[in-house]
Amino acid sequence: MTMTEPTPPVDPVLQAALPAASAVDSPARNTWRRFLREPLGVAALVVLVSLVFVAVAAPLLADYPTGYGNAVLSPPSGANWFGTDSLGLDVYSEVVWGARQSLLVAAAASVIAIVFGTLLAVLGAYFRRLDAVISVVVDLTLSLPVLPLMILVAALIGPSTITIILVIAAFSWPEVTRVVRSQALAVVRLPYVDAARLMTSSPAWIIRRHVIPAVMPLILVSVVLTSSRAVLSAAGLAFLGLGDPNTWSWGRILYEAQQAGAMSTAWWLPMFPSLAIFLLVLASTLLSTAYNDARNPRRNKS
Amino acid sequence: MSLLSFVLKRIGRGLLTIWFAVTVTFLMLRLLPGDPAIAIASTNMTPAIRAELLRTYGLDQPLPVQYVKYLGQLLQGNLGISFSQNIPVTDSLMEMLPWTLLLVGASLVVTVLLGIPLGVAAAARAGGVLDRLVQVVAVTGQSLFVPSVGILLLYVFGLQLGWFPIGGAYTDGTYGGAWYVSVISHLVLPSLSLVLVQLGSYVLTVRSTLIEALGEDYVTLAHANGLPGRRVLWKHALRNALLPTTTLIGLQICLYLVGGVILIETVYAYPGIGRGIYDAVIRLDFPLLQGAFLLLAAVVVVVNMITDVVYGLLDPRVKVGS
Lengths: 302, 322
Description:
The complex is a heterodimer of chains A (302) and B (322). Chain A contains 13 helices and no strands. By secondary structure, chain A is an all-alpha fold. Chain A has one domain (53-69, 81-299): MetI-like fold (Orthogonal Bundle), CATH 1.10.3720. The longest helix of chain A has 37 residues, at 203-239. In chain A, 43% of the residues are buried. With 322 residues, chain B is an all-alpha fold. The mean pLDDT of chain B is 81. Chains A and B meet through helix 6, helix 7, helix 11 and helix 13 of A and helix 1, helix 6, helix 7, helix 8 and helix 10 of B.
């Protein structure tokens, strides 16, 4: 006989009257259930998942656009859904392969920025002497215009996918540190962390066991927001000619169109990559808002 | 803390930020693989000429010596010679700066003039139809990619409708009044693009801080005293809500505006610093890129200092203590 007997169904009226009844479930499941009730959040999640699917399945969805096509600057048609560019290449394939590159850059840059930024934030919150240095560097970096700085570095190293990822990560972590630090500072002062200090002398254990889990929800939101900002930065760099010249990205489609002077005649060239960027960023913003609301229902009221 | 020491502290902080920007730039230029000598010279020069070149540019000296020299040059306003134009970077930048300031300034003024009433209207009836609409538009606006907006406006209002010129900053061969008119008509589309992208975060900040202020006791008291609702909203609550908004103008808007202005000037071939950066990227003109970054950083820091001081003047608490 197993221990996992189904729990008796709770009368919905009773459950509504007794909020404690729902405390039996884990907070994560509660958040998920509340999240599913937010239509915008669910729609945003669907959009993001489909964009990730397009990125992963790019080789199945379209041939890699290369060389020259036969119909130059032809408007969208049955053969070329998104039209063709000034070299006669299919814009649909460029957008599909661009999704792969844009999401790769966004994911890689934001993972690096999040790991580095969180680590510094948590270490700073725990070791107060480090904190002084870290917060000064964060403040100073956050008060510099980031795009010109990224442009300078990308131009100096020379454009490649790795460069773009590192450059974006290098100037995205301070924002993560700023956000996570304020939360981590509050957590470190809580009594249960003091209690943990009595149990172990290992700061690494306390940070891993108590501080990181406490800032985890914030990190999840940061991942989404940092990635969407990374997409915008990468597109901006590519639009200025600092993207990887060997790979299609959404920014590069716009750059090539601008270079060829084809913006004015072929509306479909800027239109589809722009829509892709817009959808991705909008979905990320809505998703993080919906997640925040679902996690903390009181926020809704304000 | 007196207002004077507050102002001095902010200026000190601004100077620290500029020093940080300068040092980061110096380290990047010297330590990243873009060797200036390689960049200046063709690859097939003899080692002797290369060494000579390194000596002329002071690149054979130890790093700290180079750093001090670099600081000295910057203090004299010497940013080096532009590779592509062969004129001092300072001259080149000063030619472009007024256009960028005009574009940024116009966008900022329009954003504030539209953003405050919209935010107030949304906050006055929070949860109402107008509030929902404002929120949807604001979140949508924040997700826009600046060049996309620029290209869309250029296509619709410049090319299809022909209402505004599509590139440059003025019409050649116009003088006096006609020149000013041409400058303004060239300014409309690029600054409108920046406004559309910025407005959202501005409106949302005004809205949320104003809603918070409207919940305060002093607002209830003002209502109880029989002051007209409009007066309470605009005079009493808004004054407090404007404080965080001022900070937002200084920090976020300024930083994003600088990024946006580079992209939008590229779309509209507007002869400002952004367009200069685009050209410099294509020609790998490192001195110009470096100078442009430092100048933009300095502009941002100065704007920040000004908004901080304005904040101090608006907020009587600052005079008492931080």
